[in-house]
Amino acid sequence: MKFLLVFDFDHTIIDENSDTWIVKCAPERKLPNGLRNSYQPGHWTEYMGRVFVYLGDNGVKEEEMKRTMTTIPFTAGMIDLLGFIGENKELFDCIIVSDSNTVFIDWILKAADLHKVFDEVFTNPAAFSNTGYLTVQHFHAHHCAKCPKNLCKRKVLKEFLDKQLERGVSYTQIVYIGDGGNDLCPVTFLKMNDIAMPRQGYTLEKKISQLAQSLSPVQCSVLAWSSATDIMSYLKLLIKE
After folding, report:
1. CB count, 10 Å around CB of 148?
2. What share of the chain is helix, strand, coil (3-state, %, to 5)?
């Protein structure tokens, strides 16, 4: 029997937000106010599309973007944790579900030689156009009122589990590791035997405790983490059992 590890990316695997980090490539490392203020809740992908157009218009090339993105620090202990998971792949399936994009995640994981740890990455598809501009698209369409328009992580998780079942793979336990508000929807989908690991002091932890206070707690167990060493300790206990 295997365990499924589900990771968010920004502020979870890496210690920053990849989408805001790219602004370091902009002239004077900042965006004009008009562009910065053009974000509308639930429409982050469209906003990032405009950011990429601005960068392209200012002559920011793929090489410079890649160089900048691969300087993002990993969260404390994360490299060790992913190394440990890589050494125990017969026990762990490991996926990323992220509101970042395929280009950023690919660059960052490959630069650190960590891409082989993950079986699949579910994130917004991105590519460079023939004019050299980075473009990004919605991951999918969905009907969940709680999630941003481009991505419902619960839907991704459910579809992944269904597909695995068709292949004859079921999991002893799902461990969901994340930090943000958009991680709450998949966490509410987890069952009693599963575990949510919200990052301490971040939105997901706060939202889980708000649910408990309003007497509609999540079904799964909850264990907060502050460094990836905490996650590794838990996984080591898990495989000892």
Report:
1. 19
2. 45, 20, 35
Q: What is the pLDDT of residues 8-55, one digit of tens each?
A: 999 999 999 999 999 999 999 999 999 999 999 888 999 999 999 999
| Residue owning tokens 């210690």 | 15
99 labelled ligand-binding: yes
Contact 47, 215 (CB under 8 A): no
Kindly state whether residue 54 falls inside one of the protein's structural domains.
no
pLDDT digit string, tens, across residues 92-143 = 999 999 999 999 999 999 999 999 999 999 999 999 999 999 999 989 989 9
The pTM assigned to this predicted structure is 0.96
Annotated binding residue at 19? yes
For strands 171-178 and 2-7, give the pairing: parallel
* Residue 162 assigned to a binding site: no
Say if 204 falls within a structural domain.
Answer: yes
8 is in an annotated binding site: yes
Residue with tokens 């992913």: 82
Which are the catalytic amino acids?
A: 8, 10
Q: Does residue 50 lie in a domain region?
A: no
